[in-house]
Write a structure and sequence with these properties.
Helix content: over 70%
Radius of gyration: 18 Å
Distance between the termini: 26 Å
Number of domains: 1
Number of helices: 12
Length: 272
């Protein structure tokens, strides 16, 4: 991977991590379309590393939310009333929503690494993202807000996040769709999707660090990864605010159409 490729892919990650169009899918599709020959082990580690960069973006954007959540959780533990306040409950629900994908990620790690070099599988998964977004718009009543969240909602949305372990199935698209099928409105679904991304991104960052330490030429490739990391963090921060504003006015159909087009184009090029 070159520095130019790192920056371009970092920008793409920053944009697509929070938009429901699959960041991991784009990190497979873009190198394929431009004929960039990036080793699969480097591609996988880079993908997880720039996801950590977007974790930085989430923490920066929602720092006040996380401050109140962590404070409420600590107070709840001290008083032996862990679910006494809305912020404390939200914190525990975020952790609960992260458990299914964390377990699946550990069990499927080897399969997922192989999937990150398969553009045909990624294209099919992008079609799956489009279908999820359409279903969410058709099924959801869009009447609930974050204060109405229950542990059952959190667990079900967490199960949707398992889908996003495969490149092409958008994490934000899966979890936003999951929340909307529980009748949450679009901005609320997006907000919870971003908040619940933090634990799984932290876990992914730990796995990326372990993988990085096993690469023989780490000293050579790390300086190449850093510009992509920075680009991903900055662009990701901007993308969060844009998407929340967008979903206040428009539907997910636009993203479903985009996923369908990019999937069809990639599949045609891969087959023919």
């Amino acid at each position: 991977m070159t520095v130019f490729q790192s920056v371009i892919l970092g920008i793409i990650q920053g944009i697509t991590e929070f938009l429901p169009i699959s960041s991991s899918g784009h990190l497979v599709v873009v190198p394929f379309l431009f004929r960039w020959d990036i080793p699969p082990d480097e591609a996988f580690v880079f993908d997880v590393l720039v996801q950590v960069a977007t974790l930085v973006a989430v923490l920066a954007y929602f720092w006040q939310d996380f401050y109140h959540i962590l404070r409420a959780m600590l107070h709840g533990i001290q008083r032996r009333q862990p679910l006494a306040t809305q912020h404390a409950r939200l914190g525990w629900y975020i952790l609960l929503a992260s458990i299914p994908a964390a377990i699946a990620g550990i069990l499927l790690k080897d399969i997922l690494e192989r999937a990150f070099s398969n553009p045909i599988m990624t294209s099919i998964a992008l079609f799956g993202t489009a279908i999820l977004l359409v279903i969410a718009e058709q099924v959801g009543a869009r009447s609930r807000k974050l204060e109405n969240l229950t542990w059952q909602d959190a667990l079900i949305i967490g199960l949707f996040q398992i889908l996003a372990l495969f490149p092409g199935l958008s994490r934000s698209g899966s979890t936003i769709s999951g929340a909307m099928t529980r009748n949450f409105n679009r901005p609320t679904a997006a907000r919870f999707s971003f908040l619940m991304a933090v634990p799984i991104m932290l876990a992914a960052g730990l796995l990326a660090t372990i993988d990085l330490l096993t690469i023989p030429n780490l000293g050579d490739i790390l300086p190449v990864f850093i510009p992509g990391f920075i680009a991903s963090a900055v662009v990701g921060y901007l993308a969060i605010g844009w998407l929340i504003s967008f979903l206040n006015r428009y539907s997910l159909y636009y993203f479903a159409a985009y996923c369908t087009l990019i999937a069809a184009a990639t599949l045609l090029i891969a087959v023919f």
